[in-house]
Write a structure and sequence with these properties.
heterodimer, A: 279 residues, mainly alpha, MetI-like fold, 2 domains, B: 313 residues, two-stranded antiparallel sheet, globular
Chain lengths: 279, 313
């Protein structure tokens, strides 16, 4: 083989392997989603949403408690995490723009995004479960909000930085104080971006299991009391999938299906929103 | 910009409130470190640092705890998953930036990134019910017949393939970290100036040679940062491995053995720890994981920032 042929063959092989890698990635995506879809849809019944769990062997049990609990925990986490994240991001991008400390906090937040969520669970256990003496829903919500804060903070910072400085100057020239410029001009300009950040952060925490395992724990009964253990879909999935009963496995698949669809829709909505706004 | 802040009282309040909100990040990190240290202090006092890190004991009955089996499992699964994921992730990045026709670049990139959006509990469940039987029935017996008799390498493929083992956990982890490395590598590849690439084409380089000799060397900092970031992610992954790793506190040499990682031990034993020293040792493990992943992520961030500075010049 001549040198030219060898180079050509080597190139073709390498490019073919890269293409294969891309298809392998797509294959995993289709395989996992397809599997969840296949198993989940079969177990999806009205009972699942309307009934509370029943002992294994009894027909007609559902996961109403887990759906409601998951909703409560996620909503509370959002109500805590989003305002703190947005305000924090505002400081970094506006008042502290260009300061060393802003850069430092921004880097710390980036690291914090990837800190193991189970560590945050142990931290919350130490400060909110151990002193109280029992697992409670608030602990779970706060654990999730700690995961949300850096995500929302970083997107807010980035999105506010994208708003042109001249826009602020125009508002300053009219005599507006900085807080008015931020709330009425900058926030409006960056609204879509911030909304995307919120959607993606909700998508991120809605599937979290590890930080809930020893904060909100689980509850086999329907409960709206955030001061007591609250059931969540993800912890229920963990418990049911590891359990010995076939009916538990089916319900775990159905719950996985619901949560996956919810998260993928949120993620795609966030992506489309940002694409549409910053084209 | 900050000058205007002083003029208006509402502005002063707003700036202080936003500052407080942004400092929660710093406070949280310090508070996590402090609380974990405080809760693990009985275990630190009893087992010390080196003794804890180097001991393979994990015996709740005798109240003797050491982290080595957990650290071993964590590092083994992480490194293995990285070895599986890296070639695939870089291949994907090459495909998306250089090979794919333009109309496919966006959709394929987005689809790969969707892999990162799937919650880890779903990976775990899929691993337990779908991947694990496939591994134990088809893939692991094949590996065993291929490599089991080979000296040295064969040690890795001993025992009965049950599917609940290090190899299955690593494969799942690798699927989870592919999107991180792939998207960071893609962004880094995209930053290679087209002038440089075109010069290489002009002297007769093939497409692969341009990738190999121009694009990859140019973007290696970013790719490396992405790899370390994936490493940090994999270290702390819990639910995806909790289903398929077994929670076996032994140092094992075969990939077909069950093992335990720090995260799996925490997930399985934390809520059940009945003695103070047991719970304290689990907090100690969490502290080790926090420090380990924080350092890894800081290193990743360092390289990514360095890469950013290089490209923006």
């Amino acid at each position: 083989m001549t040198a030219e042929q060898k180079r050509k063959v080597e190139g073709a092989v390498a490019l073919a392997l890269s293409t294969a890698a891309a298809f392998l990635g797509l294959f995993w995506l289709v395989f996992i989603l397809g599997d969840v879809l296949f198993h989940g849809i079969r177990a999806l019944t009205p009972d699942l949403f309307l009934n509370d769990p029943v002992p294994p062997g009894v027909e007609g049990g559902g996961l109403r408690n887990a759906f409601v609990g998951q909703l409560m925990i996620t909503v509370c986490a959002t109500l805590i995490g989003v305002p703190v994240g947005i305000l924090g991001g505002t400081f970094l991008a506006e008042y502290a723009r260009g300061w060393k400390i802003a850069r430092f906090i921004s880097i710390l937040a980036d690291i914090m995004v990837s800190v193991p969520s189970i560590v945050i669970g142990t931290f919350i256990y130490a400060i909110l479960v151990k002193p109280v003496g029992h697992f409670n829903g608030w602990a779970g919500a706060i654990a999730l909000s700690i995961i949300m804060i850096p995500v929302v903070l970083r997107t807010t910072e980035d999105m506010l930085s994208l708003v042109p400085w001249t826009l602020r100057e125009a508002a300053f020239a009219l005599g507006a104080p900085y807080y008015k410029v931020i709330t009425q001009v900058v926030y409006r300009g960056a609204a879509t971006g911030i909304l995307t950040g919120i959607l993606l952060s909700i998508a991120r925490v809605a599937g979290e299991t590890a930080p809930l395992l020893f904060t909100s724990f689980n509850n086999s009964f329907f409960s709206l009391n955030m001061h007591q253990p609250v059931a969540s879909l993800t912890v229920t999935i963990f418990q049911y999938a590891m359990g010995p009963y076939e009916s538990w496995h089916e319900q775990a698949w159905a719950a996985s299906f619901v949560i996956t669809v919810f998260i993928l829709l949120l993620t795609m909505a966030g992506r489309l929103l940002i694409k549409w706004r910053y084209k | 910009m900050a000058r205007t802040a002083k003029k208006n009282p509402v502005d002063a309040v707003f700036s202080v409130v936003t500052a407080a909100a942004s400092f929660t990040v710093v406070i949280l990190i310090v508070a996590i470190l402090y609380e974990l240290l405080r809760e693990s202090s009985p275990a630190i006092a009893r087992f010390g640092v080196w003794k804890f890190l180097c001991s393979t004991d994990w015996d709740p009955v005798k109240e003797s705890f050491g982290a080595l089996t957990n650290i071993y499992g964590t590092i083994l699964t992480t490194v293995l998953s990285l070895m599986i994921a890296m070639p695939v992730a870089i291949g994907i990045a090459i495909f998306v930036t250089e090979i794919a026709p333009n109309f496919l670049k966006g959709p394929i990139g987005a689809a790969i990134e969707l892999l990162a959006a799937i919650p880890s509990i779903i990976y775990g469940m899929w691993g337990l019910f779908t991947l694990s039987p496939i591994m134990s029935r088809f893939i692991e017996p094949t590996l065993k017949t291929m490599f089991g008799a080979v000296p040295v390498v064969g040690i890795l493929f001993q025992g009965t393939p049950l599917g609940i083992d290090i190899l299955t956990a690593s494969v799942i982890l690798s699927i989870m970290i592919i999107p991180f490395t792939a998207s960071i590598s893609r962004d880094a590849f995209n930053l290679t100036p087209s002038v440089v690439k075109e010069s290489a084409y002009a002297i007769g380089a093939t497409q692969w040679e341009v990738v190999k000799n121009v694009v990859i060397p140019y973007s290696k900092l970013g790719v490396f940062g992405g790899m370390v970031l994936s490493l940090g992610r994999a270290l702390g992954e819990t639910m995806a491995v909790a289903f398929v790793l077994g929670n076996n506190h032994r140092i094992t040499t075969s990939l077909f053995d069950a093992a335990a990682t720090i995260t799996v031990t925490l997930a399985n034993e934390f809520a059940e720890a009945d003695k103070d020293i047991y719970l304290s040792s689990l907090f100690y493990l969490a502290l080790v994981l926090f420090v380990l992943s924080f350092i890894t992520l800081a290193v990743a961030k360092f390289f990514l920032l360095k890469a950013e500075r290089k490209y923006s010049r």
